[in-house]
Amino acid sequence: MELKDEDLDLILQFKEGNKNAFEEIIKKYKKIVINVAYNFVYNTSDAEEIAQEVFIKIYQNIHKFNPKAKFKTWVYKITSNLCINVLKKKKIHSEVLVSDTKTLPANKITDSASLGDNFLIQKELSEIVRNAIFKLSPRQRLAILLQYYEDMSLKEIGESLSCSSAAAGVLLQRARESLQKILSIHLKDIV
To answer: What is the rounded CA–CA span in Å between residue 160 and residue 147?
Structure first.
């Protein structure tokens, strides 16, 4: 996947002094950046602050961007670095900020027939998975989020995390193994 022409056009326009081009970049990537940040820190105000910092970094460093690279990957790299920095500053990477998850009793799952019950079960399972992802190391968490939530390739994940595709693959494998261990504890009562 190559750099989209509109991204390159906006970047070139901004480098030439067109401030509206930067506003277009913000419009295009703001939601993506906030989503990645939120899924990483699970805090709306932190996610919004990270997004602001991402666009400040882009503004300050756009002259360093290589037009042969993918702009989207560069944005993810800046976002990833800032997310990790927020966790380091707050020292919360091992704490659980999302709501406490308690597994549903097995009989609730087998007895539920209505759509409402299925929705509640799905919501509970989503919270368990989200909580498990939050327990991963920051780099593992980012790798999982970038692959499964942002649908990035190993190459793009590696570029975003400043490592090779092979290292990104190993990181994802370890993250999956860690998730499997965490989830097996939470889900043993359900299965």
So the answer is: 11
